[in-house]
Design a protein that fits this description.
The complex is a heterodimer of chains A (210) and B (396). Chain A has 210 residues and is α/β, with parallel strands linked by helices. Chain A has nine helices and seven strands, in the order E-H-E-H-E-E-E-H-E-H-E-H-H-H-H-H. In chain A, the strands form two sheets. A five-stranded parallel β-sheet of chain A has the order 2-1-3-6-7, sandwiched between helices. In chain A, helix 7 packs across helix 8. The longest helix of chain A has 32 residues. Chain B is an alpha+beta fold. Helix content of chain B is 61%, strand content 10%. In chain B, the strands form two sheets. A five-stranded mixed β-sheet of chain B has the order 2-4-5-7-6. A two-stranded antiparallel sheet of chain B has the order 1-3. The radius of gyration of chain B is 30 Å and the shape is elongated. The chains are: A alpha/beta (210), B alpha+beta (396). At the A-B interface, helix 1 of A face helix 6 and helix 7 of B.
Chain lengths: 210, 396
Amino acid sequence: MIVSSDKPVVFVVDDDPHIREALDGLIRSLQLNVKTFGTTEEFLNFKRPDTPGCIVLDVRLPGLNGLDFQRDLQKLNIDLPIIFISAHGDVPMSVRAIKAGAIEFLTKPFRHQDLVDAIHVGIERDRCHRQAMATISELQSRFVLLTARERQIMHKVVGGGPNKLIAAELKLSEFTVQVHRSHVMHKMKAKSLVDLVRMADRLQDCAKTG
Amino acid sequence: MSLNFLCRGFLWLCLGKSTIHPAKRGVPARLVVVRWATGTSGMRLQQAAGRTLLLPITTVALAAGIFAVDTITDSEIAFPAFYTAIVLLSVGFCKKTGVVFVGIGCIALTLLSDLLTVNSGVSEAGVINTAISFLAITTTTFLAIKIQSAEIVAVEAQSQLAHVVRVTALGELAATIAHEVSQPLTAAVINGNACLEWLAAHPPNLDEARRAIGLLVKDAHRASHVLGQVRALTKGSISEKGPLDINKTILATVILIDREIQKSQVSLQTQLSDDVPIVDGDRVQLQQVILNLLLNGIEAIKLVAAGPKDLIVSSAKSDSDDVLISVQDSGAGFALADLDRLFSAFYTTKPGGMGMGLAISRTIIENHRGRIWATPNSPRGAVFQFTLPIGQELIA
């Protein structure tokens, strides 16, 4: 299946070729791109396009448990949402999958609507995630342009300090602080002080979560 | 790949059934039937009784011999030590208390022959040797009882194990079949839904819809192929069909439940007709059916606190020239509303039951071109009956 960059793509990993073929047809009928794999290696070797997507993953895979693969993906920083399908799922298995962040755990033969809904939820979640990640990386790229002094000023400004106080603390003239401050606003493309505070919060959250 | 597993699972299950074969079970071949029916099966019963009486008669004769020699010989000769052989032999046909009585009897006989010995000058050696004989008899009796109890425990453990193995094997087989069938069914459902989506599109994509339906049909074929293979396996397992005396099969099965009969204090009658023709069948499978019906009967009787505890197994030539086997109990019986479901798989009234016994029985009987059915017994209980056609070579 040719993957065009604008449409979301669903990755199917299932060792049963008939299930793969059926899911391929179903997902295409939902006007989504689909790419199927018989093994997890095939999936990892595939060069994924930079579009929102999700994985439909069979729990029983040759040589590897789908749940273990979920963990491996997290280690590899591949955070595509996962929908599990299983022929013989039990409660502990599904609890483990959902706890590890899976969208849904469906037992074969599952209701068609459940899978369709889960796929849409997965794609939407990935889209949001991608947008958030894009915003963060944009902010980071702006932030690296700031000089050490400008970063210092930004820190004080978002901390709520008036220019006079900042100038006194840093032993600078109030005018110099004003100049640095306008540079910060310009480089960070912040429209207002509130906007700048929000950006600082995001950068801080991102730094915390790693 | 997984069908290979399926086949192995099934074979294991088939082999498992050999555990009910009496020769392999190590069950003591004691035929204790509480009340034999008079009439049709007299000769057959005498034969059976003859076999079971052989050992006690030999033992009594041997005891008499030892007693005679002991009486003739001097009391200083420790001949009574040979009574240990009597105790050991008695294990073969006596229960625990019986063995104890045999031991006491042997000691009594020793004392008696000492009194009867003509030159009964009480010598020191004589007393010591008699004491040694007593000790030997007592020790042997004690050990014999121990061994007997251990054997009972071992047999029970073995039969429980056999049951567990069968249940486990059946569970695994069912899980495998369920998985094998579930895969193509899942694919079929997905393809059906995909087809609906293609048809609902504007404009409908007929080529894709047609393709999805094509896949769906293939999936359905795959599912039925799996079931076909399972069916072929069950048919293939009747490989040991041959001319069979159903009365012998019934008697061999009755031996298997001997202990169960004693424990539950059920009165078992066998009414076996002499003019039953030879049938064409698999001995082990038919034994499984009879065993299942008898055990069901015993369990039904156990549910009833008071009243007669009768279990009757009979064979006869039916009006339509078939062989008719019936198992009749005075147990709890069944509700008429359940009559339709009795032989369905997974239907059970027992707390730990799997609901497979009667379903498997019906499959076996139908594979033998026979019929199996149930009717209420009067005044209480149930009657399970099945027919088997007469062996082909006998009709010809």
